[in-house]
Amino acid sequence: MNEMPNIEQATDMTETKISANKVQVYYGDTHAIKDVDIEIQPRSVTAFIGPSGCGKSTFLRTINRMNDTIDICRVEGSIRIDGEDIYDPKVDPVQLRAKVGMVFQKPNPFPKSIYDNIAYGPRIHGLARNKAELDDIVSSSLQKAGLWEEVKNRLDEPGTGMSGGQQQRLCIARAIAVSPEVILMDEPCSALDPIATAKVEELIDELRENFTIVIVTHSMQQAARVSQRTAFFHLGILVEEGSTQDIFTNPKDKRTQDYITGRFG
Ligand SMILES: Nc1ncnc2c1ncn2[C@@H]1O[C@H](COP(=O)(O)OP(=O)(O)OP(=O)(O)O)[C@@H](O)[C@H]1O
């Protein structure tokens, strides 16, 4: 008897987690993102690359409405996550940012203990009914961020006293603690040395099993190492998006080719 195809797996391959349609972003009169359409797959890493000022960070911030915090910034078009328009007035940006976490260029732990850095979000969002549940969230988030063994005996010490690489993994653990579905990373390794960078890259590779990850990076080597899909931006336009292998070995657009071969940027 023929076996039924694995439908779940088959759908998964074409599934879309984030879908952007005709997205424009303006800072006052500056048109920073022009007509961007992209579909981002779940449980994968998508890298945004392109020369400085091309709009990578701006577009990344539209995915959890961090641009709302910039007065002169205006977003048009639609961004859907699991089909839901995240710019719908009914959407609470605080809830959205729990679902779509963010890790920044410079590690920014709170001036609190390692434990409280992780426990802060779950407390605010009421994710633990008691101390034992909160303890579980803290330990499992630190484990998922590959930090547990290094910090399990010093949870009461300040997060700011850790090394830069540990602080960045703490920030990743903090994002994970509120059970996000998407994690946005804006040049997460730019302040780290090569060893700490390698650890964060390893972590990103592990996290993609459970999360949809979008990373802005200046390093094409990093994009090639950590991502399955790559999107190349230039002057606010999404020039091309595709499998990382295709973008780096067989780009369709001359601008992409010029960038990846170091002709500009
Ligand atoms: N807060 C802001 N106010 C005004 N203009 C801004 C703001 N943030 C970004 N811009 C402008 O929007 C454009 C895109 O900037 P953005 O930081 O998104 O690019 P980027 O590709 O991430 O650059 P980089 O790689 O240098 O970080 C630039 O022209 C920039 O000057």
TrEMBL record:
One function term, GO molecular function aspect: ATP binding
Gene Ontology CC, one term: membrane
Domain of life: Bacteria
Any GO BP: phosphate ion transmembrane transport
Record-linked InterPro entries: AAA+_ATPase, ABC_transporter-like_ATP-bd, ABC_transporter-like_CS, P-loop_NTPase, PstB-like
CDD domains: ABC_PstB_phosphate_transporter
UniProt EC number: 3.6.3.27
Keyword Manganese: no
ABC transporter domain residues: 18-260
Keywords of the record: ATP-binding, Hydrolase, Nucleotide-binding, Phosphate transport, Transport
Family of the protein in this entry: Belongs to the ABC transporter superfamily.
NCBIfam families from the UniProt entry: 3a0107s01c2 (TIGR00972)
Protein name: Phosphate import ATP-binding protein PstB
